[in-house]
Amino acid sequence: MTKDNLLDAIIEQTKTSKKPTEKQQKIAETAIKMFADKGYANTSTSEIAKAAGVAEGTIFRHYGTKDNLLLSVIIPFLKEALPGMAGKVFKEVLTEDTVHFEDFLRRIIKNRMEFILENQEIFRIIVKELLYSEELRKEFLPYFSTNVMRRVAHAIELFKSRGEIKDLPTDALLKMLMITFGGFLVTNFVLSPSHNTLDIEQETENLVRFVMDGIRN
Amino acid sequence: MTKDNLLDAIIEQTKTSKKPTEKQQKIAETAIKMFADKGYANTSTSEIAKAAGVAEGTIFRHYGTKDNLLLSVIIPFLKEALPGMAGKVFKEVLTEDTVHFEDFLRRIIKNRMEFILENQEIFRIIVKELLYSEELRKEFLPYFSTNVMRRVAHAIELFKSRGEIKDLPTDALLKMLMITFGGFLVTNFVLSPSHNTLDIEQETENLVRFVMDGIRN
Amino acid sequence: MTKDNLLDAIIEQTKTSKKPTEKQQKIAETAIKMFADKGYANTSTSEIAKAAGVAEGTIFRHYGTKDNLLLSVIIPFLKEALPGMAGKVFKEVLTEDTVHFEDFLRRIIKNRMEFILENQEIFRIIVKELLYSEELRKEFLPYFSTNVMRRVAHAIELFKSRGEIKDLPTDALLKMLMITFGGFLVTNFVLSPSHNTLDIEQETENLVRFVMDGIRN
Amino acid sequence: MTKDNLLDAIIEQTKTSKKPTEKQQKIAETAIKMFADKGYANTSTSEIAKAAGVAEGTIFRHYGTKDNLLLSVIIPFLKEALPGMAGKVFKEVLTEDTVHFEDFLRRIIKNRMEFILENQEIFRIIVKELLYSEELRKEFLPYFSTNVMRRVAHAIELFKSRGEIKDLPTDALLKMLMITFGGFLVTNFVLSPSHNTLDIEQETENLVRFVMDGIRN
DNA sequence: TATGAATGAGAATTCATTCAT
DNA sequence: CATGAATGAATTCTCATTCAT
Lengths: 217, 217, 217, 217
Hints:
Four copies of one chain form a homotetramer. By secondary structure, chain A is mainly alpha-helical. Chain A folds into two domains: 2-63, Homeodomain-like (Arc Repressor Mutant, subunit A), CATH 1.10.10; 73-213, Tetracycline Repressor, domain 2 (Orthogonal Bundle). Chain A has ten helices and no strands. In chain A, helix 2 crosses helix 7 (120-132), helix 5 packs antiparallel against helix 6 (101-118) and helix 6 crosses helix 7 (120-132). The model of chain A has no long low-confidence stretch (mean pLDDT 87). Chains in contact: A-B, C-D. The interface between A and B is large, with 46 and 46 residues. The structure holds a DNA duplex.
């Protein structure tokens, strides 16, 4: 129970902007780097402690559990990443009917890419652990489904009704969009090592055109 | 050296069809299931032994190392999966100039999906470990690059010259194809739990049309 | 690297007199006794832990490796045993030309016997492992050769030039001295169980006379 | 019980010259080499089996136990080595009163050195294991004491009475002789790697002179 | 709050030994 | 006689977690 309380406390901390200790900060930063690099299972708390210049006990004083440390790092990201998408971009689109789907897509892709570019390491952790841990998957995917997929589905239907995109089942369209964007993100941020030299502008453009018109001449 | 010899012996075994013991068989099967499920790092040899109804020592008598057990399971798959693609489908296409790119795509996708459907669990292991282990990635990706990507690139150029697909840089086209097909496979076989009720015919069709023409109306 | 660091840390500890934990102390003591008794290979870390009243993990927290534990026990002894010989006794002899070889011999033998009497167990460990482990032998013997043998050879030559000992090849004389003193130490401290009732005075005298004049009437 | 019977059977076999199987022979030879090289504790039966070109089970079929294999190799050597000394040389000396102690010593040393030169590996095994295993030591040393030491003591007394050697306590003389010869053998056959290029004639001469007259000029 | 020594439950691996064929 | 697959106890080592200071 202490563990859950601790986690809650940390989540709370994020919201209420109660300052985390300097050490706590350092632990989180270090953990992120190491988890992203070697994966959660292959990173020991003692390594983290050493790299963070902190006693091993300190990690547990703050996070209670290694699992908790992982979640403490992941959750704030998700809390921002998923809704973050909605807040700004979606609302505009739902109202403005001058915006074309292509522009909508372009905006979202660029927006999320920039966000992930700034949080590459956490993104890598999430992708890796999502694939690795059935448990995490079971917790995350439904959440993702309701928070993201539904919104996108909604948008798709809107644009379908406007006649901008093909009149295929929303499910099928949604799936293609998610696969393409997901594959794109994973390829660029997890598989390929060229994290810095990424021309977002160009990559976005290629992706949008591909999604809109395919490759047929 | 014993370790490598053991691995070589196992690879050899695959080729020469020297019968593996009943227990050895059971160990491999069980390991595949468990690795696919929980990931390599989260599966202990003692769990595998218990689940396979075998003494833990027996695993090591046959595979020498846990790593080895993983490789023994992965390598035969890769040996078949990667070249398997080339042999049949590619050659036909390079000669027949009646085949359209769409058909080429359809054939390859269906063919590989069927193969992976039959080897779902190993595919899941490979995807997971590829993302998880830098080491595996460094060994596998270049191999994949030379064996698969180059062939596909070749095909793309062929069809570009025939005017069937857009005259974009081969790299860009290749990337989109790989992302889409990869994302598709991962979504269907790794992320989603509905492994059995997959309508290959229909899924393939959706994918091909999406890749060819995008979603614009 | 952690392993070596740990070993270095322990060596360091010896010099800088940074207090080892009480448990660490106990582990070392217990290990010395057991290694001396049953040999390194026949003593398991779990036995040591049990005998030391410590959790097995504690051994590894402090010493990292079983090998390391052995070295941590041996090295400080060697660091003192080998140079220890030289510092005091040798220097005097090289200057004073009143000292006879017989006295020189007597002093060294007595001095080293007393030292070993106080460190019997470590001496037993070293002798056993030296014979048992090719590896240790290869590391230690050359070191012994340069640090001890050379000095003794030097002294032998000095006394030969003074006409006190036979004009035989230094090598041959050296070999006889080493064999006799070595055999003497091993017999008294390793083979025979009467470790306590040893009359150093008398034994030294016998040995010196034997070496000087042999057994002929 | 089967184990002991097996050991007895093997001892018996040696005497009654019942042919050991070809495989059995190979196992013994290989074991001798490997025990001499790496020590008993560091040599696994599976290694022996592999090196001997034999199935692991075969070792146990013949020797029942790894311990047994060791003994089967050691005992025949001891049975010959220890009494072997007595039979020829001692008897002559006890009768002939023309023989000087120096010649007696020379003969024994040369005789035993030749024997050990031919059985180097077993000698190395015995020395190593004698130091390593309290158990072996407790069995062997008393046996050695009654069979060898007593005879030598007897001879010493004889020569003392003839006035050829110093009138010191037999114990003390005996000890010096054993230490010197033992140290000599261990140095030449166990510690030093130059097993082949040993000038027995010369080494014997050096040793005898040293023992007789010491190093004083 | 922070420390770091101590823990003990497992983890991978080794190996002598057994036994059915 | 010989084989070699199978065993399971023992071994070294790792690591998240606790707790006294």
